[in-house]
Design a protein that fits this description.
Elements: H1 2-27, E1 40-46, E2 54-60, E3 71-73, E4 80-83, E5 87-91, E6 97-100, E7 105-107, E8 113-115, E9 120-121, E10 135-140, E11 145-150, E12 159-163, E13 166-167, E14 174-176, E15 182-184, E16 198-201, E17 203-205, H2 211-248
Antiparallel strand pairs: 1-2, 3-17, 4-16, 5-6, 5-9, 5-13, 7-8, 10-11, 11-12, 14-15
Length: 249
């Protein structure tokens, strides 16, 4: 009796974790460059004192969907999207190098180039990119080269200030951190710049979340959760019936 109750309890708990994961995907359906998290459940042996006679359900995040999201044309000079495979290098809040597909860029009051999430963009030398203000125009080339026109200078006086660091690691070598940025699975490792990665200027890559698929998965998990609760109720009723039989005996 207790085994079925334990299995149903752990299954219901993991169904809740699964719904949280899909709810997070749905919440980011309009987030630029977002990669949907995948979810799977499997049985796990429970180890502890005595014999390992219990098995529980466990929901885990085995990885992300790395397929490309839809590309939206904006016409904005500071909007870029990576064409095909590749990533933009940024500095995460802890000061470490991380990677993203979010290319909605902006310049803060001090001239530092960052994305819409406030992460500093990194240049090909691995340092933050500084834009000498004031400027009249900024251009980002297909290879990530950043050119600016100083305020008051003639149109032909465009100057190259830096180049965005673009990388193309194997997706299997990366994981998504809690802040939504991707990092190398090897602690402290950073990927080298790849000259073969190209950008599309004046466009942004949307989220690759399939809203209909996420809603379907949430409905399926909700029904599975209800089934687990019914199983716990059945175990309680069977336990009560067993106790009654013992009293009659």
């Amino acid at each position: 009796m207790d085994r079925s109750l334990y299995l149903a309890m752990s299954g219901a708990k993991q169904d809740m974790y699964g719904m949280q994961l899909h709810a997070n995907n749905l919440a980011n359906v309009r987030t630029t460059g977002f990669r949907a998290d995948l979810e799977q459940a499997r049985s796990m042996q429970a180890y502890g004192e005595g014999l390992p006679s219990r098995v529980f359900a466990m929901t885990e995040r085995p990885g992300q969907d790395f397929s490309q999201g839809s590309v939206m044309t904006t016409g904005r000079d500071l909007d870029v999207t990576v064409e095909g495979d590749g990533w933009l290098a940024v500095m995460d809040p802890s000061g470490q190098e991380a990677y993203t597909r979010a290319g909605h860029l902006k310049i803060d009051q001090t001239g530092m180039l960052q994305n819409s999430n406030g992460n500093l963009m990194l240049g090909e030398n691995g340092g933050p990119i500084f834009i000498p203000l004031p400027i009249s125009k900024i251009e980002i080339g297909k290879d990530g080269t950043i050119s600016v026109l100083p305020q008051g200078a003639p149109p032909e006086a465009m100057e190259v200030v830096d180049r965005l660091k673009l990388v193309r690691p194997d997706n299997r070598d990366m994981y998504k951190d809690v802040n939504g940025l991707f990092k190398s699975k090897t602690p402290g490792e950073v990927f080298d710049a790849d000259a073969g990665v190209t950008l599309l200027n004046g466009a942004l890559e949307g989220s690759n979340v399939n809203a209909v698929g996420e809603m379907t998965s949430m409905i399926d998990l909700q029904r599975h959760f209800e089934m687990q609760v019914k199983l716990m109720k059945t175990a309680e009723e069977m336990d009560a019936a067993s106790s009654s039989l013992l009293r009659l005996g």
